[in-house]
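Standup notes
- DV: blocked on the single-chain target, sequence here:
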Amino acid sequence: MTFGLVGLLLGAAMAAPNGGIAHSARIDHRTGAVHSDYTANVQVTHQQIGTVGVGGRPSTLRCLWRAGLVVERQARHESGSTLARSFTHDKVIEGSRPGWCSAQKTAIAQEVASRNDAFQARLVQLAQEDHPVLHAEIDRMHGTMQAG
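- DV (later): unblocked, structure below
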């Protein structure tokens, strides 16, 4: 008997390590400079797998977990216009622990908190990947057809 669905989303959004992750960038566009602020919260999901051992048999219970980012972008064009966007990146780090997910939440949270550097680096990378999207939004805002 597998408990694959039990606890699939036991870990709802949790606070980011050290009170949040942030990154700022200035993007030059032909219509003017854009200052963008990216903030992210860590979201951890848990998935319970395996079976409980019966009659002296060992348990195969494991808790699979995955930590990703929920990113909010606020961008301000020098004209005063603002552009906002939210997006997620589901997998920054992942792991597994033996036993029930409910018994492993504290240990998983500590491991996630200790990996703040990985989340910060991924946020910077996601911000860079967002720059073409932001350029396109600015082009649409100013009614132009060419990217800047």
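- Follow-up: Helices lie at 101-113, 116-141.
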